[in-house]
Amino acid sequence: MSWLAVAAGAAVGTAARYGIDLLLPHPIDGFPWSTFIVNAVGSLALGWLTAALWDRVPDWVRAGLGAGLLGSFTTFSAVMVSAIAIGQGGELVGGPGSVLPGDFAGAALVVFANVFVGIVCALIGLLVGRGGRGPRLASTPEGGEDA
Question: How many CB atoms lie under 10 A from the CB of residue 124?
Fold first, then answer.
């Protein structure tokens, strides 16, 4: 059942990701706004799902929503390709781009912005999913209290 849930979730997540890329196109060497937004939304959603639902739903639902839907919706590889393209001045796919060759600060910005905002969004999702009680980072024994 989990395999089917992952496949179904992946079909939806991939289609949604592609749709956002179509809505927010960018040159290969430009800031990848569609990827940035998708990764932020995906981090927020996974944080919320983890805190609010994970212990209440079957494994196949977690697999379908986590690995399937959100795993295919968000993308680390697109961040890395954008960073390399910016760092090389867009010459990744042929021809000079709109940024200066060797724009390593721009490349670093793409990576840092995606990671930092992803962490912040995941934390917000966890907080919202737990009703503002803060994220639970480790399991506690039965009857124990969170540290």
Answer: 16
- Distance, CA of 96 to CA of 87 (rounded, Å): 12
Looking at residue 130, its amino acid is: R
d(CA 66, CA 83): 25
Spell out the domain ranges in the chain.
2-129
CB 17 within 8 A of CB 75: yes
Name the residue type at position 67.
A
At 76, the amino acid letter reads F
Task: Write the DSSP symbol of residue 46.
Answer: H
Contact 46, 66 (CB under 8 A): yes
**Residues 6 or more apart from 143 whose CB is under 8 A from it?**
none
Q: Write out the chain's pLDDT in tens, 147 residues.
A: 999 999 999 999 999 999 999 999 988 778 899 999 999 999 999 999 999 998 899 999 999 999 999 999 998 888 888 888 888 775 554 444 444 556 788 888 999 999 999 999 999 999 999 887 765 655 544 444 443
**Residue that has been written with the tokens 């001045």 in this structure:** 89
